[in-house]
């Protein structure tokens, strides 16, 4: 197992390099760029996603750092008409667009090798500092929602498998169908309308993960304040995410329950609980464990974007989305680097957990 872990660790830098290279190429092709974004802000145009698409008669939308045909005023970027060419050149130097794309990529990767993620174009702060500032929000949403989803889905899935076809199975299936069918942001809106002063009750806040006076509270009050703020967004993520894991658990257990070794264990006189949790559980949980890294990464970085917007939570998902719209390349690639690294490490942890649950799995032998 040690050799397998070492090989996987050595593959992480190669995989990250490929991920960043692919996205860097896509960014060079995609329309818009930080210089155009800044010029659009100065001119009062081009600062929204729709203006980039429509163009509004301002000329062709450009790729990252690509030049357009000069306009009649000598400008080479959309929105640069009437501006001093020396000022445009200074912007190119500021954003490193005075260098070719391959050189920019090479300089970026050299910095990433030492975990230097650069400085945000539009925030004027180191990318690492911004990520660390936003991380508590996303970690709170991702970790708590994922843990609660697993704590609900695994017992519920086991119960549905053991009582397959019963009234309990049918009744809980309706809740699962609703969880599948209704988007998470609709649950969020419903919770706001009912419990956050939308129309009926005003029990929960709608901004931040703690109150403004949180630091002045006692520790018991701090914990209660934190739970008070996190209740609605975490509930939204749990409602939208428990359905698939519940069905995965149920189907995994049903498949194992019908195998011959279960019949043999029962014939030997073992109790149903010993058969279920001593024999079936380990084998059935393999698929559930395999989905844990993907579920956690999804909750941390992607699934919570709309939830962060709706509940005014300033986390990593919202940061990545805004950085993409603003064409803040250091922030975009910095968050991509962090997301990719965490995802690869969680996948490795998942493989190690495989062997802890089922010692028969040996990744070293599979690769020889």
Describe this structure in a few short sentences.
This protein is mainly α and 368 residues long. It is 70% helix and 0% strand.
Question: What brief labels describe this structure?
Answer:
368 residues; mainly alpha; 16 helices; 70% helix; 0% strand
Q: Could you estimate the helical fraction of the residues in percent?
A: 55-70%
Q: How do the SSEs run, as a string of H and E?
A: HHHHHHHHHHHHHHHH
Number of strands: 0
- Kindly estimate the percentage of residues that lie in beta strands according to DSSP: under 5%
The Cα radius of gyration reads 26 Å
Q: What separation lies between the terminal Cα atoms?
A: 12 Å
Find the structural class using helix and strand composition: mainly alpha
């Amino acid at each position: 197992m040690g050799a397998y872990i070492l090989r996987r660790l050595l593959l992480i830098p190669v995989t990250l390099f490929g991920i960043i290279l692919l996205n860097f190429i896509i960014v060079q092709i995609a329309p818009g760029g930080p210089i155009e974004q800044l010029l659009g802000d100065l001119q009062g145009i081009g600062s929204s996603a729709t203006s980039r698409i429509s163009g509004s008669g301002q000329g062709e939308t450009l790729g990252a750092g690509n030049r357009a045909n000069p306009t009649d005023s000598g400008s080479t970027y959309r929105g640069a008409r009437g501006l001093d060419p020396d000022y445009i050149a200074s912007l190119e130097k500021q954003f490193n667009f005075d260098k070719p794309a391959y050189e920019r990529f090479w300089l970026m990767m050299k910095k990433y090798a030492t975990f230097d993620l650069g400085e945000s174009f539009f925030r004027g702060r180191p990318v690492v500092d911004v990520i660390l500032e936003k991380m508590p929000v996303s970690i709170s949403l991702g970790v708590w929602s994922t843990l609660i989803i697993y704590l609900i889905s695994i017992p519920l899935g086991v119960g549905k498998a053991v009582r397959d076809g019963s009234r309990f199975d049918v009744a809980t299936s309706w809740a699962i169908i609703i969880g599948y069918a209704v988007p998470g942001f609709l649950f969020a809106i419903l919770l706001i309308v009912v419990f956050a002063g939308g129309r009926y009750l005003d029990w929960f806040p709608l901004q931040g993960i703690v109150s403004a006076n949180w630091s002045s509270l006692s520790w018991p009050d701090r914990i209660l304040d934190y739970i008070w703020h996190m209740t609605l967004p975490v509930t939204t993520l749990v409602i939208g995410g428990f359905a698939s894991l519940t069905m995965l658990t149920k189907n995994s257990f049903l498949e194992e329950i019908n195998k011959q070794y279960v019949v043999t264990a029962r014939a030997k006189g073992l109790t149903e609980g010993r058969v279920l949790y001593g024999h079936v559980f380990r084998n059935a949980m393999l698929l559930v464990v395999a989905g844990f890294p993907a579920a956690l990464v999804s909750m941390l970085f992607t699934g919570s974007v709309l939830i962060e917007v709706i509940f005014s939570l300033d986390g990593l998902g919202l940061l990545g989305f805004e950085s993409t719209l603003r064409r803040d390349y250091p922030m975009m690639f910095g968050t991509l680097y962090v997301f990719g690294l965490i995802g690869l490490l969680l996948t490795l942890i998942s493989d190690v957990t495989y062997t802890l649950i089922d010692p028969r799995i040996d990744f070293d032998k599979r690769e020889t």
